[in-house]
């Protein structure tokens, strides 16, 4: 069985995406879409592993801008803040053509 490092890389990055509903009690969290800060209100929290550095990026979205988690993730992917499987494949293809 031959291992494919590209598929492993894509799977690791796509599995790192986590979206949760939170209610920040102490800290103010800023919505990425409307740029308002909220505390003690329902928000969505998305964290994911960055491309090359092994640290997580975090984004917050308020429940007034987004109706559910899927809408929040779709908006992040459409604006280019969160990667998609296709964008990861293009990145791997670009890197392999350079090497």
Distance between the termini: 24 Å
Order of helices and strands: HEEEEEHH
Strand proportion = 15-25%
Biggest pleated-sheet summary: 3 strands, antiparallel
Strand order, largest beta sheet: 1-4-5
In the predicted model, the low-confidence regions spanning at least 5 consecutive residues are none
The helix content is 25-40%
Describe the structure.
This protein is of the alpha+beta class. It contains 3 helices and 5 strands. The protein has helices at 5-15, 69-79, 85-98, and strands at 18-22, 29-30, 37-38, 43-49, 56-62. The strands form 2 sheets. It has a 3-stranded antiparallel sheet with strand order 1-4-5, with helices on one face. The chain has a two-stranded antiparallel sheet with strand order 2-3. The longest helix is centred in the C-terminal third of the chain and has 14 residues, at 85-98. The two termini are 24 Å apart.
Task: Write out key terms for the chains shown.
3-stranded antiparallel sheet, alpha+beta, 99 residues, 23% strand, 5 strands, two-stranded antiparallel sheet, 3 helices, elongated
Outline the secondary-structure elements.
Layout: H1 5-15, E1 18-22, E2 29-30, E3 37-38, E4 43-49, E5 56-62, H2 69-79, H3 85-98
Antiparallel strand pairs: 1-4, 2-3, 4-5
Briefly summarize what is shown.
The chain is α+β, with helices and mostly antiparallel strands.
């Amino acid at each position: 069985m031959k291992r494919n490092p590209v598929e492993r890389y894509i799977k690791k990055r796509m599995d790192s995406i986590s979206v949760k509903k939170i209610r920040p009690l102490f800290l103010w969290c800023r919505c990425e879409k409307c740029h308002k800060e909220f505390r003690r209100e329902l928000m969505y929290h998305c964290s994911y592993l960055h491309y090359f550095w092994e640290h997580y990026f975090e984004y917050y979205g308020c429940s007034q801008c987004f109706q559910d988690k899927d809408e929040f993730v779709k908006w992040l992917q459409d604006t280019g803040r969160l990667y998609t499987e296709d964008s990861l494949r293009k990145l791997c293809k670009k890197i392999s053509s350079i090497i």
